[in-house]
Here is the input.
Amino acid sequence: MTTTLVIRLSSLGDVAIAIPVLYSVAKKYPDDHFLLLTKSAGESLFVNKPSNLTVFPIDTKGKHKGIKGLLRLLRELSPHIRKKELKVADLHGVIRSFLLDYYFRFRGYPVAIIDKGRKEKRRLVRRKNKILQPLKTSIDRYREVFEKLGYDSSLCFTGLFSERPAKEHSRIGIAPFAKHKGKMYPLKLMEKVVSLLSEIPGLQITLWGSKDEQKFLKTWTDRYPNTTLVAGQMSLQEELFLMNQLDLMVSMDSANMHFASLVNTPVVSIWGATHPYAGFYGFNQDPSNAVQIDLPCRPCSIFGNKSCFRGDYACLTQIAPETTVASKVFKILGSNTASD
Here is the structure.
């Protein structure tokens, strides 16, 4: 039996992007064992996973921190890989994963490392002579790693759940937060979207976020009818199950876009400093559902973590809640209803 050690340590969104590839490869090679190293928070994403895929949670801020932590990790991994044919698929490509790569390569094991395309991404976000063209997707970059190791990585993933439950009412989710300001639609504008959607008869709105964002989102549920708070109420697996029941999710370029994609829920995604061309668009999502405006400065960041050099975040503030975001939701809900 061949064991393939797969390294994808963070973040949750990136781990979610890897799932269609991991599930597809594992299902095609049932006699091989796939051992994924990832942070413990990502373990809950692996719903209905193939039996030959094992998630090995690591603690990069605790017992697996630093060189001593890596040595401890190697000792803990030893029972899983001892006396077995081993391959290493590095889907992360950072210093911590490089150290593991060097260790296994020194011992003679084949190692394949992701090509992140850093040069072309810099050309995409630079202020002058920007080259605005679609880059290779993260999913394709992950697939390339497995292809280098001799695997057929063509996708056969169809979702974490086999079917979607029947519903009496239309239900949408709204996830208004993102890690960085350059990714987040201003909350006052998003509140306007919630206000407009809450007036639709029979439409149920669920509000998504972290436990820290729960208190703020409750002010919206108190203010607008047909809105329910999800943030901070459930485990990640329970959230995935509920997302599977949604007709639509409205989110930023954030983890919730990728979570919804894993359960085949359409997403209206709002893009500011970042851009779908960077390769982080949701799996199987319709490109026409990306909400964005054309500005010569866009995109200015791959991850949305840079300050706006204009100072006004026009890429987000100029997106109209009524005629752009809400109207797209109305259009998608209408077409879905027509097709039912």
In short: The first helix runs from residue 12 to 28. The first strand starts at residue 2 and ends at 7. The mean pLDDT is 94. The CA atoms of residues 123 and 153 lie 28 Å apart.
